[in-house]
Amino acid sequence: MCLTPISSKFLENGQPDLSFSGDGVFVQQTRDNGFATGGIITVQPDGKLLITGAYQERLESEFSVLRLTSVGAADATWNAT
């Protein structure tokens, strides 16, 4: 298992915002033997975050989009079809 930090939130004084994902950092689990990168983060009007990213293992790469709630949790209501 590989854990990749995806997004962090800080207070105005530079300290991690502990209300975001419990410690100020959202971490996404990825598959073994590869690496993931975060891309563009967009804040929606309701405060939710859309995050683009990519995962690469050997010569294969995949594009992904993740949505977090305003408190840094994966949004289980998104793409629930």
Structure description:
With 81 residues, the chain is mostly beta strands. It is 0% helix and 49% strand. It has a three-stranded antiparallel beta sheet with strand order 3-4-5, with no helix packed on it. A two-stranded antiparallel sheet has the order 1-2.
Brief overview, please?
This protein is an all-beta fold and 81 residues long. 0% of the residues lie in helices and 49% in strands. The chain is globular and about 40 Å long.
Give, in order, the helices and strands.
Answer: EEEEE
Major beta sheet summary? 3 strands, antiparallel
Kindly name the structural category: mainly beta
Q: How many helices?
A: 0
**How many strand elements?**
5
| Order of the strands making up the biggest sheet | 3-4-5
Quote the distance from N terminus to C terminus: 27 Å
Strand content: over 45%
Helix share bin: under 10%
Q: What number is the mean pLDDT?
A: 80
> What would you call the shape?
globular
User: Regions with pLDDT < 50 over 5+ consecutive residues?
Assistant: none
Instruction: Tell me the Rg in angstroms.
Output: 13 Å
